[in-house]
Amino acid sequence: MTWKRFTIHDSKYHSGVDIYDNLLHKVVIEIHTGNKQINRLIAKAALRIIEGKL
Question: Which of these, 6, 4, 52, 53, lies nearest to 31 by C-alpha position?
Fold first, then answer.
């Protein structure tokens, strides 16, 4: 089983998406555009960038 440092969560406090750092135990990126599908696409792209896969 592989351990993932970053995970995508639906925010409890607003209608956006959060990228959570499992190592630091805090939210590192908040995305809120008003469109749930666009939020998810931006979050997936941001994960690829911060993980160095792009």
Answer: 6
